[in-house]
Design a protein that fits this description.
two-stranded antiparallel ribbon
Length: 111
């Protein structure tokens, strides 16, 4: 996994449309909900914005439980907090001892 930090002042559901369009153009196949996928672009956090709709929940509902998503985010924004609770995401890292994460850098990253 990787994280990207961007400045997007628009509507979050419009950004979701953009990411889903990218997934589709790059050949994402949605065979099984929550199953393996060829590509998955998630909106994890949007500053202090909180949104819950039928299509989208921001911050990502399981972000605080998923080391593979939270650790790359914390590399970009080490002081990130959950806007719903004010809790530091960095404080959650200790709870990830059972989740095996391997960091890739350089040419191996794209494998």
């Amino acid at each position: 996994n990787a994280a990207v930090l961007l400045d997007y002042p628009g509507e979050l559901e419009r950004l979701l449309d953009v990411t889903q369009d990218i997934e589709q153009r790059l050949g994402r196949v949605r065979e099984v909900r929550w199953g393996p996928r060829t590509l998955d672009l998630d909106l994890l956090l949007a500053g202090s914005r909180v949104l819950t709709t039928e299509r989208l929940t921001v911050p990502h509902a399981l972000l605080h439980e998923r080391a593979f998503a939270l650790l790359p985010l914390l590399e970009l924004q080490p002081d990130a907090v959950d806007p719903r609770t004010g809790a530091s995401y960095a404080a959650r890292v200790a709870a990830f001892h059972s989740q095996r994460i391997e960091r890739l850098e350089g040419p191996e990253w794209a494998k």
